[in-house]
Amino acid sequence: AQKVTQAQTEISVVEKEDVTLDCVYETRDTTYYLFWYKQPPSGELVFLIRRNSFDEQNEISGRYSWNFQKSTSSFNFTITASQVVDSAVYFCALGYNQGGKLIFGQGTELSVKP
Amino acid sequence: DTGVSQNPRHKITKRGQNVTFRCDPISEHNRLYWYRQTLGQGPEFLTYFQNEAQLEKSRLLSDRFSAERPKGSFSTLEIQRTEQGDSAMYLCASSLIQGPLHFGNGTRLTVT
User: Fold this and answer.
1) Which of A23, B16, B96, B112 would be A92's cystine partner, CB 3.0–4.6 Å?
2) pLDDT the model gives residue B99
3) Which residues in chain B land under pLDDT 50?
4) Do residue A44 and residue B100 have CB atoms under 8 angstroms apart?
5) Which residues on A lie below 8 Å from B105 (Cβ)?
6) B98 touches chain A (CB under 8 A)
7) Across the interface, do B98 and A98 touch by the CB < 8 Å criterion?
8) How far apart (Å, rounded) are the C-alpha atoms in residues A15 and A82?
């Protein structure tokens, strides 16, 4: 079965707090890709990151960081020093090519309050 | 840099009517995807094209749904005999063959 689970439906934090969004995936394939997308209130899904299954090195981009652990089938996303502009729905997704068809999780709605 | 463009942004129709949505991808992208998103859920894959060829269709896509990409550029998604259950946001995305998907703003369909 191929599935992505984002157990946190909603998270609310106060500005400058750190927040971690969880993502757990299921697949029998050994080669796959994991993605995070941001969907602000405007509705357009914005690509944030893509990782392949052979690269477990964590990645940091500014205030964003990603922790990929194959042993627990998790690909968690941390926002450091959150800002009001980070308020959005965040989706984790699983794919089998660098592009291609994606299987999305249910999303986590992040609300950052001033 | 023009992104993926979808028209219309909103469509309200009565049950039983046909509707058609248009998607203009990023110009150099040869893959085009359609997804459907309902409230509180992640996008669900419907179909995708590589150039003008439709390479995969989801089992979610009933016979009332048809998509085309006649010249490998823009695409249309038609829903015939709409039902209330078709109410959703219809998202289009495009990509290079090995690239991540870039999404448009979507067309919100309401069937009354």
Assistant:
1) A23
2) 84
3) none
4) no
5) 42-44
6) yes
7) yes
8) 5
